[in-house]
Amino acid sequence: MADIYGRATPRYGGSFTSDGARLLFSGDVDGAGLLVQNITINYQQAVSRIWELSSNTTYYVAGRTSGQLGMTRVLGPVLLNRAFYTLYGNVCNISDGTVITLTFENECTPEGASSESTLQVRQPVITAIGFNMSTADMVISENVTMLFATLERSGE
Fold first, then answer.
1. Distances in whole angstroms, Cα of residue 29 to Cα of each of 66, 86, 99
2. What is the pTM of this model?
3. Any idea what the Cα angle at residue 106 is, between residues 142 and 110, rounded to 5°?
4. Residue 39: is it exposed, middle or buried by C-beta count within 10 angstroms (0-12/13-18/19+)?
5. 145 φ, ψ to 5°?
6. 136-146 residue pLDDT tens
7. Is residue 53 part of a domain?
8. Domain holding 62: CATH number?
């Protein structure tokens, strides 16, 4: 039977769930109460292209990496905010163990298959904070920008 609009039937590529995503913070910061609504992670590397004068050969030279994390959250309980700012806001508190972890658990995988993927942001520190409030709902939103050193990935 043909599609009503004359379109090709798409091939089924598999299933996955998105409700298994979790955002975890290191230290005494419990991410479950931070009311994070949105997160954006950008990670880049400096790459220079150089040419050899005596030939038409080009080379790529990899420089350092850097990352930026943007997060929108609703201001919630004061104790959680204090712990978040204390750990991530003071550059002197950052260490190799300071991480933010984004975990995806897929419940649609075959039995015995790996069902978890993880992104881990290492050595994040807050570089900017902004606030927003709307008269419609009177909810105060906070926009946080963070700098980080490396982004690691594990799982599928």
1. 24, 9, 11
2. 0.78
3. 175
4. middle
5. -115, 135
6. 988 899 999 99
7. yes
8. 2.30.110
